Amino acid sequence: MENADIGKTLYLAEVGVPLMIRKLISVKDLNVFRIAEGTDRIHHGCNQEWYPRRLQRLAGCGPTTATNIYLYLTSPQHAPESEFLQHTLESSVAQMQELWKYVTPSFRGVNTTRMFYEPMLEYAQTKGLNVAYRVLEVPKDTAERPKFSETLKFVEDGLAANTPLAFLNLDNGQEKNLDRWHWVTIIGLEYEEDGSSAYADILDAGLIKRINFKLWYETTTLGGGLIYFVRS
């Protein structure tokens, strides 16, 4: 921080102006999402373009996001070898195909949170995993939406529980780095404590992207929803 900035900060504190506090939070082991293609290429999270059939590639964002979350829920977190854990493209595609059988898109895709969390719970049960879920709906009607502070707290709670969140975006509004009618995986959050700004790090198309989460909330016309799962 420059000297002028330090002086300004001290002055504001002295005169009683509330100072904005920037907070950072993410899942603890981002290496879980490293997926190797051959020996010289690394992807970050799964990519629906890996599905073999055209319909799957067009509508597969839901089961792709489900795969990212399942890989994290079943990872050997906090174990020493976790730092070096690396999935392959082939094993990830096989997992995507298996999740497709449960989180199966309709002709409108996986366009509700229930179409996501119910089959995920069913799939976890078949694998012997005890999983609970939390869901937050962001309705189309702005008057019915939770406050942004509540929405931000939901994302923070999920990440604090060391679990990624499934994010359903039915309309991206003015956020250009997010596709419409699309599921992505939230893995991190950077925000001002007073809610004046908030950016989310997401997995999408095998990449880590950053979106203006507050801009999405304020400009989306159709809303969406958020889900996270915790092992119990």
Account of the 3D structure:
By secondary structure, the chain is an alpha+beta fold. The chain has a single domain (24-231), classed as Cathepsin B, Chain A (Alpha-Beta Complex), CATH 3.90.70.10. 33% of the residues lie in helices and 26% in strands. It has helices at 3-14, 54-59, 61-73, 89-100, 114-126, 148-160, 213-219; strands spanning 22-26, 34-37, 41-44, 87-88, 131-138, 165-169, 182-192, 198-204, 207-212, 224-231. A hairpin with a 2-residue loop joins strand 8 and strand 9. The radius of gyration is 19 Å and the shape is globular.
So, the CATH homologous superfamily? Cysteine proteinases
Number of domains: 1
**CATH class assignment:** Alpha Beta
Q: Based on DSSP secondary structure assignment, what is the total number of beta strands?
A: 10
Name the poorly predicted regions: 1-13, 78-82
Q: Could you describe the largest sheet, including whether it forms a barrel?
A: 7 strands, antiparallel
**How many distinct helices?**
7
Return Rg in Å: 19 Å
Helix content: 25-40%
SSE pattern, N- to C-terminal: HEEEHHEHHEHEEEEHE
Portion in beta strands: 25-35%
Rounded mean pLDDT is: 89
Q: What structural class results from the helix and strand content?
A: alpha+beta
Q: What CATH architecture would you give?
A: Alpha-Beta Complex
Shape: globular
- What name is given to the CATH topology? Cathepsin B, Chain A
| C-alpha termini separation | 43 Å
